[in-house]
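Lecture 7 notes: from sequence to structure.

We start with a single chain of 270 residues. Read the sequence below before looking at the structure.
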Amino acid sequence: MRADQPPPQETATDVRADQPPRLETPSRVRADQPSPSKTPAHVSPAAVVLEAARDNAAWCDAMCRAHGLPGRFTAHAWTNPRRTPPYYPDAVTLSPSATEAGVLGGIDAGPGASVKDSFAALDLTPYGFHVLFEARWLHRPAAPAPDPAGDVVWGRVRSASELREWERACFGGEADGLFPPSLLEETAILYGRRDGAVVCGCVLTLTGEAVGVSNVFASGCDDDPAWAGTVAQAARLFPGRDLVGYEADTAPAERHGFTPTGPLRVWLTS
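Now the structure, written as tokens:
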């Protein structure tokens, strides 16, 4: 069964048809250097959802491009006509005005197709889809974050061998080669080590004004060290930036300064 990972503020009108939003790469904003101080121009829940959905779509497109499967952006949705890698959707809506026909017309809607309904506004049941899971978008205002206490040491994945180690820890050995090394040039993939072993980690993406937080995992420690480290690393690498993301279980993120905003759904065909 396919699933989307539950485990990067512009409005939808800022996303031009057939042109992906700019993905910041190390040549423009390096994650080991201070970035310009920016916070979303609007911090209403609706604006947060628009920014978070746009960033998430850009991250999905980066993953697909790394696999030779680029998607297509319109004002209302990101879609991919070919089946995307495991854990990643075939479509992400970018506007509450997206329609079922418009989204499904851009993908292979056969068995195994998945759609991230960023505004929980679609009804895909008549088209053979069911709700795989529901979640909430998250927002954390830009704020300094002290290095968390404890024995988890954080660092950035820099090599293909480190990436494979990170992937094994993140997915429990169930994903092999899902993250191609080329992603290291477009994202900040971070690990937390204890006694040399990767016990937690996350992915940070910078595609707009806010930093996207995804793939937060804890495989050898509690959730709190993973989230505390993620927030601290985001503040260090991208100072002055709000954080956005989503989770099905928002409690761990809420304990570290995130506020749940709008709902989302991920739909799947059997």
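The first strand starts at residue 72 and ends at 73. Keep this in mind for problem set 3.
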